Amino acid sequence: MRALLTVFSLAAVLKLDDANAARVLGLFPHTGKSHQMVFDPLLRTLAERGHHVTVVSFFPVKNPPENYTDVSLEGIAGLGLEVIDLAMYENGNVLLKMLGLDNIARQLLDFEPLAEMALDVCSKLVSFPPLVEVLRKDYDVILVENFNSDCMLGLSHVYGKKVPVIGLLTSSLMQWSADRIGVNDNPAFVPVLSAHYTSRMNFYERLENTFLNVYFKVWFRYNIQLKEQEIIERHFGRRIPDLRDLAKNTTLLLANVFHSLNGVRPLIPGLVEVGGMHLNHKRSVIPPYIERFMNESDHGVVLLSFGSLIKTSTMPEYKERMIISALSRLKQRVIWKFEESEEEGTLEGNVMKVRWIPQYDLLRHKKVLAFIGHGGLLGMTEAISAGKPMVVVPFFGDQPYNAAMAEEVGLGVQLPYEQLTEESLLKAVQTVLSAEMRLSARRVSKIWHDRETKPLDTAVYWTERVIRWGYHDKLYSAARDLNFIEHNLLDVAAAFVLAIIVLVLIAKLLLTAVLKIFKASISGKDKEKLH
Ligand SMILES: *[C@@H]1O[C@H](CO)[C@@H](O)[C@H](O)[C@H]1NC(C)=O
Ligand SMILES: *[C@@H]1O[C@H](CO)[C@@H](O)[C@H](O)[C@H]1NC(C)=O
Ligand SMILES: *[C@@H]1O[C@H](CO)[C@@H](O)[C@H](O)[C@H]1NC(C)=O
């Protein structure tokens, strides 16, 4: 037995140099293109380092490296690209606003579609032959997106996968992520993902934050996790372990955030910040008509883009006019990513609408001075990396929080969409174009870049570390295995209160007894006197 153990641990030690040629499986069942853009560089780099990488996703890569196998989910669900209609942001609910509940309502509604998407994809995945074929093979580690679904965890279990799981996040932790590795998400100072405030909250914000922290955990449990469990069990006709327990076997979470942009939260070894790991620092060719437009601007260029999910052309005509008139009062030229424009851009005065922009290349161009964006984390990450100040016009999800953080760290200013007017936009752009703000953005950028290792190298290191040691290297905190009562010390608080009550009762009894004795002795003395 001992000999066997020695051989075993020797093998484990030898594995140190032997994270080589591991078999890596990546499972990405979400339909948002921007999400996959974060994971691709890590997966590609792992293959280039000699691992055998199999990736299941909606977005197969072009020219995959050697030993990289793509399994496409294309066709099983609609893709998330330019799907958000801006018309729905026109009429905020006046009553909700009066009651101060508009922000809560937005957050509750923002998450609703995620459940439907997750269940739709899950119900297709259970019987998708290419996935079944992939899951029948053996792997050394599984990388899975930690977003709106745990379906893949259930399916991996069905096919007998007993290897460490790494969860990848394109953003900060989801509300239901923290418990699976036991990281502190105390709502007194850790804002929920969709918050519109940062970590210093007043009483009302803490109330809202605490409610949402609990609500989203319960919401995920009942609207997604349990339903996915049911989908899987119904399809395979047998019970599987609770998806919540499978989720708790997550070895590591890699989140595409970094504290100097996304705020400080308590970390544990199993939660590693790799913000910016997706940035490709190689320069690509800027289309000549865009470069010419920039070259010919004497006062620099401002970039405007609402990202890949929002369909800019659904913006009401009056708002588009308003933005154009605000921007026409700048001496800078403006490049606006706008799907409905001509092949070589549509020019309106100093504004050029362009169907697609190589955003990060433009942001790093010396002529580009500032960026007006929607606060999607990828665009924000590109802006902070390039050191360009931003006006953030947030819409949904984590964008209001990102906007608030941009302001807090000195990267820019926020301007809520419903407060967007010609004057407010002009003022915001002029603020970020000021020498002070541009200097501040450069400083914030340097701080953000200042790390022990580059974020992609950090992600590779931790992935290979998990490949080397797996379950032997515990990265989670014991909080993972506590229930709600234990975790929040409610039992200890109850014991404490009980102890006080008991002490008070005892004290009272004693006092009564002492008084009685005292009275008795006095009356005894009185009686003596009488005799
Ligand atoms: C791909 O895998 C084969 C077989 O394991 C190996 O010999 C080869 O070196 C790998 N290629 C790269 C680029 O790592
Ligand atoms: C979780 O991982 C451990 C290895 O540490 C394994 O023994 C256990 O069976 C796993 N639990 C589930 C529910 O898969
Ligand atoms: C823009 O200017 C740079 C150098 O200032 C030059 O190399 C490039 O060719 C110019 N591009 C266009 C399309 O005019």
Automatic annotation (TrEMBL):
One of its GO terms (cellular component) is membrane. CDD domains: GT1_Gtf-like (cd03784). Keywords: Glycosyltransferase, Membrane, Signal, Transferase, Transmembrane, Transmembrane helix. It is an enzyme of class 2 (transferase). The keyword Transferase applies. It is found in: Membrane. Gene3D superfamilies: Glycogen Phosphorylase B (3.40.50.2000). Its main location: membrane. It comes from the Eukaryota. It holds the Pfam family UDPGT. The chain crosses the membrane at residues 492-515. Its EC number is 2.4.1.17. Residues 1-21 form the signal peptide. It is a single-pass membrane protein. It catalyses: glucuronate acceptor + UDP-alpha-D-glucuronate = acceptor beta-D-glucuronoside + UDP + H(+). PANTHER family: EG:EG0003.4 PROTEIN-RELATED, IP04436P-RELATED. This is UDP-glucuronosyltransferase. The lineage of its organism: Eukaryota, Metazoa, Ecdysozoa, Arthropoda, Hexapoda.
